[in-house]
Fold this sequence. Notes:
- By secondary structure, the protein is of the alpha/beta class.
- Helix content is 40%, strand content 18%.
- The chain has helices at residues 14-25, 44-54, 56-67, 82-92, 133-145, 172-188, and strands at 2-6, 29-31, 75-80, 99-103, 119-126, 149-156.
- It has a six-stranded parallel sheet with strand order 2-1-3-4-5-6, sandwiched between helices.
- The model has no long low-confidence stretch (mean pLDDT 97).
Amino acid sequence: MNIMLFHSTHGLGPAVRQAADRLRGAGHEVWTPDLFEGRTFDSVEDGMAFKDGIGKDELLRRAVLAAAPYSERGLVYAGFSLGASIAQTLALGDDKARGLLLLHGTSDIAPGVRADELPVQLHVAEPDPFETDDWLSAWYLQMGRIGADVEIYRYAGAGHLYTDPGLPDYDAEAAEATWRVALGFLGTLG
């Protein structure tokens, strides 16, 4: 699979590179665009402030430019938290998308979008302060209405970015379970 993997508000740090290496080790081709142009952040608050300074439109423009050279190949869009919301937006706008792997995040769904049988897998903490139960229920129903084939995996007691070994949220057991399931999912898309 050809995978476009987007970073969280922490920026393109070691956890994203490690994830990309894991995916490459499983035989996938992976691109990790740096939407923050080299900036990384230790806190969500600092990363969010930087993201807000860039603006949503500019961030999406950067993401589209990063993905455009590869979209003809049929990309699987993937991302962590903020990166997952970007991945979702791009996948729903790309009729050649092969799949969508969301780690720790989702996004609003634009009106009129179709995702006929797009395979989607979401991995998220339970509870998650950024992905509440009510939000996830509404998101799941709306994704179904637009035609996506969605699987959701919840990890009780894990922190928001539980796959990042450099953060206090890290949960080794939940992270390994996530990667095992995600790699299986990616294997079905070939």
